[in-house]
Design a protein that fits this description.
By secondary structure, the protein is an alpha+beta fold. It contains 11 helices and 11 strands. The protein has 3 domains: about 100 residues, Arc Repressor Mutant, subunit A (Orthogonal Bundle), CATH 1.10.10; about 80 residues, Roll (SH3 type barrels); about 80 residues, Alpha-Beta Plaits, CATH 3.30.70.
């Protein structure tokens, strides 16, 4: 049996991470194209898809491999990286079997595992539109659609689609509309038409989407500084609870000073309200004043607010 070097394992891990990432993003994969991309034989790619990824509910249509729409976005980047690292040295972990990985992936077959996260949006009846958008993104084709909002519907014509983004279990279309990058809730998109007209993708837009923590895509960000009390500090240390979160300072009493960048006050104030009284807005001061005013209104008895009630 030939020796497997650390370099071989790194190459394998890189390839698997990339392929798993492509699947997770909804791409239809052609084994021959993958073989050419990673400079391996088609037989090696077939082994990756059929053996190493046997725990995934892969679908094969016209020779192309893909994940069903209901499974897209359920693997995070850290999951992809972690699997790739383990798969690269899988011989050292005999318990890392196909059944083990399937148990992790299939939430209907978990016994010792209980993973709680966001509920995923039901795309029933809109699978065809989802696939149309996916193909338009790959081919850089402009799209038109009717967009339904609370205040009424709007016709978006000649939009440039960049990504289908899953945020907190909800699917969004990130597209340029009227020269501005916007996020459209996929569930509110209707009457989708894919044009034959193409556009040249802006690499800065792709970079923005890769770096953005949230679905608010306004490029004009406001820096918000928060003071977190000791009893809530551990939650903010474990994971990012606000967009573009940075821990600026750990306080002597166990609290934190945290900064973040938001595109709109509604991106941060609901989170602040959720963590009251363990959080305070240091700047902008107007945000804290607005919070205090809202709380005063809330605590004022209804008969005081409306004497004639």
């Amino acid at each position: 049996m030939p020796n497997v070097t650390s370099s071989d394992r790194d190459v394998l891990a890189y390839r698997l991470a990339n392929i798993l990432g492509k699947l997770n993003q909804g791409e239809d994969l052609d084994p021959q194209t993958l073989a050419d991309e990673y400079n391996v034989t088609p037989r090696t790619i077939q082994r990756d898809l059929n053996d190493r990824f046997a725990f995934l509910p892969l679908e094969k249509t016209n020779g192309l491999y893909s994940l069903p729409v209901t499974a897209l976005g359920k693997l995070t980047l850290s999951d992809v990286q972690r699997f790739a690292e383990l798969a690269g040295v899988s011989g050292m972990f005999p318990w890392l079997t196909t059944e083990f990985l399937r148990d992790i992936y299939d939430n209907q077959n978990q016994s010792a595992w209980l993973v709680k996260g966001p509920n995923y949006e039901d795309l029933g009846g809109k699978t065809h539109s989802f696939k149309q958008l996916e193909q338009a993104i790959h081919a850089h084709r402009r799209v038109s659609f009717q967009y339904h909002k609370t205040e009424g519907s709007k016709l978006c014509s000649d939009a440039e689609p960049y990504k289908l983004v899953n945020h907190a279990g909800i699917w969004y279309l990130a597209a340029k509309d009227g020269g501005r990058l916007k996020a459209f809730s996929f569930g509110k998109i209707d009457r989708l038409l894919v044009s034959n007209d193409t556009f040249s993708p802006d690499p800065e837009v792709s970079q923005t989407l890769a770096n953005e923590d949230d679905i608010w895509l306004n490029p004009d960000k406001i820096e918000v500084v928060l003071k977190i009390a000791r009893e809530a500090a551990g939650y903010f240390k474990r994971r990012k609870l606000v967009a573009n979160q940075v821990i600026e300072k750990e306080l002597e009493d166990g609290g934190l000073i945290v900064s973040c960048k938001v595109a709109n006050e509604n991106q941060i104030l609901p989170i602040v309200r959720y963590w009251l009284p363990s959080i305070r807005v240091i700047s902008p001061e107007s945000y804290q004043s607005q919070m205090e005013s809202q709380l005063r209104d809330y605590l004022t008895p209804l008969n005081t607010q409306h004497p004639n009630a």
